[in-house]
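Lab meeting, action items carried over

1. Structure of the two-component assembly. Owner: GW. Status: complete.
Input record:
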Amino acid sequence: MRYNEKELRALSQQPAEMAAELSMRGPKKGSVAKRRLVKLVVNFLFYFRTDEAEPLGALLLERCRVSQEEPGGFSISEWLPPSPPSRPGCFLPGHKNLFDGPRAAQGFIEDPERKYYFECCTQEQCQEWMEALRRASYEYMRCSLIFYRNEIQKMTGKDPLEQFGISEEARFQLSSLPRDRRAACVGTQLDELD
Amino acid sequence: MTRCSGVGTGPGTMKLNERSLAFYATCDAPVDHAGFLHKKGGRHTASHRRWFVLRGNMLFYFEGPGSREPLGVIVLEGCTVELVEAAEEFAFAVRFTGAHARCYALAAESQAALEGWVKALSRASFHYLRLVVRELEQQLAAMRGTGGDGEVTVPPRRPKENGCCSAVWSAEPPAAGPRCPPLPPRRRRASTPDRPPDSAPFAQLHEWYGQEVRALRGQWLGGQTQP
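Predicted assembly:
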């Protein structure tokens, strides 16, 4: 797949939401943990050799799963879509099945071959990163917007997006969310999302 | 890790988790915008008609609507969208800044399609969405009488004093909508020699944070044994 690498590199040089030197291990079998400068910018996680200005690589943070990994780290992994036909809770031999969260209910499974591991210095740092990564997706932001919009509308009877002239945009409507997210966004606490 | 071939030249192509990208492109959540556009390959090459799908801050293009994998993606962060004078009707461009910056020459198939795409693409950035979310959160906090300082998706952090390699800061892009006020940057971390001026223009703030990253890198390097 082609992509605009130059612009992505430029993005990696921008001010980050979070940056730290962490120990990082790739998904390949037998891969060794290495010190990397890890930088969170919008919905990408860039990683650099600690003495280089140009990034080694980037991870897109959409539709990924961030999990705690004992003792003091976390992992980022991709969700694999269910291969048709899918039944909730179907078991694929050799793969780890996760019976939690709305995606698992739809038959999504975590791909162990696409899991990146990070070691933190402290438990506190680990929690900070996990929180930040959980929220570092366009999809999460969209949910937040719809949630706040709904809350404000309930309180005031007015649509707060009207002042920006964007109330009609399709991307900010409830229907823009996948079905499994709609109830969470307008019914309950935002924290209950995933 | 899967290698994804970038368009740029130079030493070592950057790795990108291509499968994540492809999955995000083709998953069955509603898309933000989709349709045929004509994309010019280069200055003197012909246009190709491709199926474009906008999702979040990423513009994917496929051979056609039924394609399983995208041909490519344009990450839209930091771009501007403008109408252009061109031989083709309904032409517009997605332009990036910087030296030798890329410019994507595109053309829609009708006036309505052109307007729809320009509108959709110019507000597609993550930065913009985050601005709006922060604004709404502030409004809600004010209404609830908590008088929150606009703390948004990032939970409050205490400065880290343990000398361990962590820096946290945020910066705001200039206001994007008709009413969005520029928000001051918020930072929490240990040992900074000085603070950025709160009301500095964005370019200055950007440069200040860039210096900070370099300073941090210097600190980290200082703590490592040289090869």
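2. GW to write a short summary for the group page. Key points so far: Residues 1-11, 150-206, 223-227 of chain B have pLDDT under 50 and may be disordered. Strands of chain B lie at 15-16, 33-40, 47-55, 58-62, 72-75, 80-83, 91-95, 103-107, 166-169, 187-188.
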